[in-house]
Design brief:
This protein is an all-alpha fold. It has helices at about 1-40, 40-55. It has two helices and no strands.
Length: about 60
């Protein structure tokens, strides 16, 4: 029984470690994919920057002459 228990523990440990490694690989691939998508094209970034500047510019100016 002791030998069978040891094999069971070993098999469970190998499966658990393999599952964790697979999870890490999948999560890193997803993070890389999201990073690639998030960068966008340079034209797209310039458009977003221009839109941001347009949104935060002052509505009016006050002048004391």
């Amino acid at each position: 029984m002791n030998q069978r228990f040891n094999k069971s523990v070993m098999k469970t440990s190998i499966l658990l470690i393999s599952g964790v490694v697979l999870l890490v690989i999948v999560l890193s691939m997803v993070a890389t994919f999201i990073g690639i998508i998030g960068k966008g094209t340079p034209d797209n970034r310039l458009g977003r920057e221009a839109a941001t500047v347009e949104r935060i510019k002052p509505v009016a100016k006050i002048s004391f002459n």
